[in-house]
Write a structure and sequence with these properties.
Pfam families: MARVEL. Keywords: Membrane, Transmembrane, Transmembrane helix. It is a multi-pass membrane protein. It is built from seven helices and no strands. The chain is mainly alpha-helical. Helix 2 packs antiparallel against helix 3, helix 2 runs antiparallel to helix 6 and helix 3 runs antiparallel to helix 5. It has a domain of 114 residues.
Length: 169
């Protein structure tokens, strides 16, 4: 008997239709958003089990935001909704997350002595590094956008040299 997936037939609709495309999962942005979601969820669980339960709201919000952006980028919502400049929103999310995770991780490790708080702090420092790397990458995209001086893609826009050449004809 032949395997249905190897026969070349498309997969039947179902749970697999909710999964993001493989290309996105292999991209740097997809891996960063997945790592941010997983780390935020682990930190949230650690804070629930710890004495520092008052810190659980920040990882929960970051988990939900990272998960939303993960599925928004995977389903190409950023291409459908042009009213939002997605890299700027992502940059601001990453900067605030890195700062908040760094602050609450220091507080969790230094103020609380239980193992769950310390684990949340250690995972929080790891999340700080991941979010900082993500905002560094996103910052480079923003700088490239600002140097362009337009919201049009570079291939759809003529350069100033071409414009001056066509004016002199």
């Amino acid at each position: 008997m032949e395997d249905p997936e190897s026969a070349g037939d498309p997969a039947p609709p179902g749970l697999s239709s909710l999964l993001p495309p493989r290309e996105f999962l292999r991209s740097r942005k997809g891996q960063l958003l997945l790592a941010e979601s997983v780390l935020s969820f682990i930190i949230f669980i650690c804070y629930i089990a710890s004495l520092a339960a008052s810190f659980m709201m920040a990882p929960l919000l970051e988990f939900l935001l990272a998960l939303f952006l993960f599925f928004a980028y995977a389903s190409k919502l950023n291409e459908k909704f042009k009213g939002v400049y997605w890299p700027l929103a992502d940059f601001l999310r990453c900067v605030t997350a890195a700062i908040i995770y760094f602050a609450i991780s220091i507080a969790a490790v230094s103020k609380y002595g239980d193992g769950a708080s310390r684990a949340a702090g250690v995972f929080g420092f790891a999340a700080t590094i991941v979010f900082a790397f993500d905002f560094y990458i996103t910052f480079n995209d923003l700088v490239a956008f600002l140097k362009q001086g337009s919201s049009e893609p570079p291939e759809g826009r003529r350069t100033e040299d071409e414009d001056s050449d066509s004016d002199s004809d």
